[in-house]
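Archive transcription. Copying these from loose printouts into the bound notebook so they stop getting lost. Printout 1 of 2:
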Amino acid sequence: MDKLLVLISVLWSLLFAGTISWAQSTSTNKVAEKTDWAVFIDKDPTECWIVAQPKETVNKLNGRIVAAKRGDILLFVFYRPGEKLTGQIAFTGGYPFSKSAPLSLDVDGKKYSLPTIDDKWAWAASSTDDSKIINAMKRGAMAKITGKSTRGKTTIDTFSLKGFTAAIQDAKKRCSG
């Protein structure tokens, strides 16, 4: 249920603000940049999030690197105090995900699953998993997300974790009450 509410809120925000990457550069609700991560806040209802774009993207089909047309590729962590949502990981890869296999998130060699898939969005299965992933990301240097499209392409998106801890602390502080 929480994941559906996140999706609805994100899609609602996208409807009025355009794409998140556009919002990263032009939105008035961006409150901070922490190296490779940006911090955003909305007031009604109160929600805070951090977001990053990948430093590297690789698309493969049958083991070969191929071109792929994709939308925005973004990794988020959300906070919504009104919904008691604290630190929810969300990922959009800019294409419809295959539901036959969960996405894999690798933080410096430690693997996690993002099995909850709704078209172009993926989440961890529980808040406990979110906490484990966030703790690993705070200690890590790189996060790599591997997914599979409905067309059979495998994507590998690599995100820098520089600034992640500072960004998450900022967002958590701004949405703590």
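Printout 2 of 2:
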Amino acid sequence: MIALRDHAWIDVRFAGRRTIPIEPPVPEDFAAEHGDHALNEDMQPMLPLKPAAVLVPLIQRPDELTVLFTQRTSHLAHHAGQVSFPGGHIEPEDGGPADTALRETEEEVGLDRKHVRIVGRLDTYVPRTGFVVTPVVGIVSPPFALKPDAHEVAEIFEVPLSFLLDRRNHQRCSAEFEGKTRFFWAMPYGRHFIWGATAGMLINLCDILDGR
């Protein structure tokens, strides 16, 4: 199994994914391999498509790497109550997806960007809600302080990376939505239900680290 105590292995896997260009305007006919449509061929995202970025924070804990997640508050307009990575819209003043991911992480959970070393990115992900999300992967070095934004974040928690990379913990689920059966990935962990776009990005992370 992978030596997940040392991030050097992660660096090697992301060696060809370190360049993260500034996100251009997204055309309405944009097509992405990864997204909610991957399991639902007739599902189309809401238009217009909006560029966004999230940080996939891999934390160097003494025993192994963990992944930091947020539980969103229940009153938000998008993905309310769901488990997610910190992130949001790419603003005109941002220097691209990596800058957006770091800024949003500082705003949402109070993690200072000086603790984060960007190692690369995952593939673009398009959820049904019409965002074009660039997941940016960063190694986070403790010690650090966190201060969640009470408006957006109900909880911050960590999950061992080894759990998320174990395909036995990946569930292909279904639910009725607007009169149709919809499929999605899920990775339940304790009382937390990681699913949807967040789980889809983790599947992509698993594929990349497996060399697929």
